[in-house]
Amino acid sequence: MRRSSVPFAARDTSLRPLTDAWRSATSRLIIIYGALFAIWCVVLLGIVQWETSRYLSGVIDQMLASRVHYLEGTAPRDMRATVDAASRIDVQGAMWMGLFDAQGRHLAGNIAALPKGLDEDGMARSIDASLDSPTRKGSTRVRGLSHELPDGTRLVVAKESTTIDGIGTIIRRGVLWGLSLTLIPGVLGGVLIARGPARRIRAIQQAMEPIREGDLSVRLPVSGIGDEVDLLAETVNATLAEIERLLGEVKGVTDNIAHDLRTPLTRMRTRLYRLQQVFESRPEGEQLDACVSEIDTVLARFRALLRVSELEDRQRSACFENMDLGSVLRNVHEFYAPVAEDRGQRFDLELGRLPPLRGDPQLLFEAFANLVGNAIKFTPDGGTVRLVASTGVDGGARVDIADTGPGIPPDEREAVFRRFYRSDETRSKPGCGLGLAIVSAIVRLHGYSLSVGGSDRGAVFTVTCPASA
């Protein structure tokens, strides 16, 4: 049995489980919609607050202008009394007035000091003034207006603007409550909505596992809802049915060719063998012997092709039984130990504690025998071949076949199990290039995995047998 000089680079081809609900398209759509809704609410309520503040500020400014206009018509000799009287009218402390001379000294009213930053341009502004009233003392945010009277005195009228701040606080609280009452139910609803598609995707992933292993008879589940997921599943199922039909036709043609050609080739070999016996002692006998050898090679390839086709039939796994992997490996060691001894090679068997597995002992014997036979064939005389079995990390079994041969270059490992593949270094070796294809078919049939590693000091074939296989 020939071993390809191209090693197998193990790749993770398993389907990624959808364990994180937030990675689904539905969840991402809900998050994006919720974020846009939250941003729009903040912007909208911000505009409402700004417009409300601007409107209330305008109302306050009109009130201040009206009060100044009213007081401006008072006679100068009565101005102090009028300002004091107007200040006492506002018992809630919501309106303040003050009269100051040209030097800024207090003359009348409940504004104790001339506010800073208040220009005499007739425009109301927000100020922080020290305002005293029967109900309030200290610094208060207000809007004030300053107006110079004809006699040089300065009239200041102010009204608190905390109502605007209160409205802003109410709007901000409304934003928080609105976002909370919208986003929290939205998130919970999104999780519930995403669970249904997530379950369907997981069911599709589970259905894809046997398809990925080569069983094209499996179909993806269809819920009957008729949404996009069902449409995709139906499209994939139709594609799988067509692929299965085409591959079945190709496989049938290949098997028929191999089977039909084997019969006339066998007859031709029989006739050539008879002629070889007649011309055994003559020069023609050597030519006939070479023809018989070539026909034997072709027949061996046909048998190998039919063997691969047989192993790729997934129904063979229905005959699996509980088996002892250690017993299979001991039989392989006993079978090849004399061959290694004849070549002066050291053939070691290391068996650890192995878990019970299900499978076909005869098929596994054939697979491990192929790998060991390759290792012995490509290991030089006096080298070492090791067959090591141990418990895997997941509770299954791991089998390594290591040799001290020339190794396999890493850049060729992708073609290790390609049918009829033979590198330039191994074309002179006997074989048809189908040995590792048979091994690969047996390993896949059992649900195991096969990888190839090593270095220039030898190759290592690793068969991993999961406990769940």
Topology:
Blueprint: H1 25-72, H2 79-89, E1 95-100, E2 106-109, E3 125-130, E4 139-148, E5 154-160, H3 162-212, H4 228-278, H5 283-311, E6 321-323, H6 325-342, E7 346-351, E8 357-359, H7 361-378, E9 384-391, E10 397-403, H8 435-446, E11 449-455, E12 458-465
Parallel strand pairs: 7-9
Antiparallel strand pairs: 1-2, 1-5, 3-4, 4-5, 6-8, 9-10, 10-12, 11-12
Catalytic activity: ATP + protein L-histidine = ADP + protein N-phospho-L-histidine
Pfam family, one: HAMP
Enzyme class: transferase
Give a brief outline of the structure:
This protein has 469 residues and is an alpha+beta fold.
Commentary on this structure:
With 469 residues, the chain is of the alpha+beta class. It has 3 domains: 198 residues, Beta-Lactamase; 84 residues, Helix Hairpins (Orthogonal Bundle), CATH 1.10.287; 147 residues, Histidine kinase-like ATPase, C-terminal domain (Heat Shock Protein 90), CATH 3.30.565. Helices cover 51% and strands 16% of the residues. The chain has 8 helices and 12 strands. The strands form 3 sheets. A 5-stranded antiparallel beta sheet has the order 2-1-5-4-3. Helix 1 packs antiparallel against helix 3. The two termini are 27 Å apart. Keywords: Kinase, Membrane, Phosphoprotein, Transferase, Transmembrane, Transmembrane helix, Two-component regulatory system. This is histidine kinase.
